[in-house]
Amino acid sequence: MKDSIFKNSAFWWQIFRFLFTSFLGTILHFLYDWSGKSVAIAPFSGVNESTWEHIKLFFFPALAFGIIQSFFFKSNEYFWQIKLYGILVGIIAIPAIFYVYNGAIGKSPDCLNISIFYIGIAISCYLEYRAFTGKEPKFSYPEIAVLCLCVIALAFMVFTFLPPNLAIFQDPVTGNFGIIP
Predict the structure, then answer these.
(1) How far apart are CA 55 and CA 60, in angstroms?
(2) pTM for this one?
(3) Which residues is 170 bridged to in the sheet?
(4) Residue closest to 170 by CA, chosen among 61, 95, 90, 111
(5) Are residues 126 and 64 in contact, defined by beta-carbon separation less than 8 angstroms?
(6) d(CA 14, CA 21)
(7) Contact, 54 vs 167, CB < 8 A?
(8) How far is the C-alpha of 93 from the C-alpha of 56, rounded, in Å?
(9) What is the C-alpha separation between 84 and 72, in angstroms, rounded?
(10) DSSP class of residue 13?
């Protein structure tokens, strides 16, 4: 009985995670412009239309939800490892789907690009659900998972201001990289 309650709970947590990440990620897409291009908002929101900035729109809401969820999952020894797994899946899925699709058919319409964001979130949530319900392997050392998430967060913040000269960081609309003063 306890297993089915937990599985049910894990399912609903992932539904809430999908909704939270989708809603907050959508808000973060516009927040930088809405804030008058605030430098304080920039590390967490999209500052241009690059693929990197769209991955950031997934990462920070997913991490924020994980922090909130951690207070309810204190007894799960694999919590942060599963969160790292789920977040990495989303970080990889969004650009992978985008680049494969665009490579196959050329430039995609904005409505499809938006759908790719939500599909990436859904894939991440589904695989995280499977991990929480014991259908995926888990690894020890939650400290390493937390450290990895912190390094990823730092990379998103730093590359907002100092992006490498790589296509994933380039705004396809302006041709610029990161925040241009």
Answers:
(1) 9
(2) 0.88
(3) 177
(4) 95
(5) no
(6) 10
(7) no
(8) 13
(9) 17
(10) H
